[in-house]
Amino acid sequence: MKVALCQINSSGDIDSNLALVEENVRTAAAEGARLIVFPEATMHAFGAGPLTGSAARFGWFTTAIQSLVDDLSVAVVCGCFRPEEGERVYNTALIARPNEEPLLYDKTHLYDAFGFAESDTVAPGENVVTFDWEGITFGVAICFDIRFPALFKKMARAGAQAIIVPTSWTPGEQKVYHWRLLSRARALDSATFILATDQAFLDDGRTDPVGVGYSSVIDPLGQVVAELEQDEGILYAELDTTAVEKARQSLPVLGAD
């Protein structure tokens, strides 16, 4: 399967972000991509205004993405925010497939680290999500989740052959190193492909999670299949799940803990 990782810079303008998604989806679909992945916070960037306001438009945004997916017969995974019962929101990965009800994964491990407190505005999720698309089973994690290997093993044991990680990684000392290292480590932990999709680097002085780039596809033995640098762009790669079978035969890590 050909996949596309869209390394973009989202903003606080939801309409502009939707237009950016549509442009990238149409470009990737024309190149033959069957699964198209966008970063965390694609719907509305961190540090660009209250998240509750954007979450109120989640239904509208979802309908627009689903219409696009139905039109082009591709699958899209996209970072959004949706309302929570209280005053916070959920940090959600929207999973849209043609002519099916969207699936939602809510970020489990919130980014309360390095001086940032995501839990002030975001409620944690509790669900583990896997889904099938054109013969491959995918799992989904979001950003800070990548520091917690148990989640990745859980998805792999549930059948995931590739795990999608939409991200809006905070810049800072050693943060690019962490991002690239953790992507490879989680591939090895779970013997799956990792589709690590970050926002492009935006050097505007914000301390919010705005992205460092370096989106990548990692194979089940931790090798980098393809990687972008810091600028906006679309990364393409082919997933061959026989690599997952071979990795799990030679490196049987899922039965131990």
TrEMBL record:
GO molecular function: hydrolase activity
Keyword Glycosyltransferase: no
CDD domains the record matches: nitrilase_3
Domain named CN hydrolase: residues: 1-241
NAD found in the keyword field: no
Family under the similarity heading: Belongs to the carbon-nitrogen hydrolase superfamily. NIT1/NIT2 family.
Protein name per Swiss-Prot or TrEMBL: Hydrolase, carbon-nitrogen family
Species annotation: Corynebacterium glucuronolyticum ATCC 51866
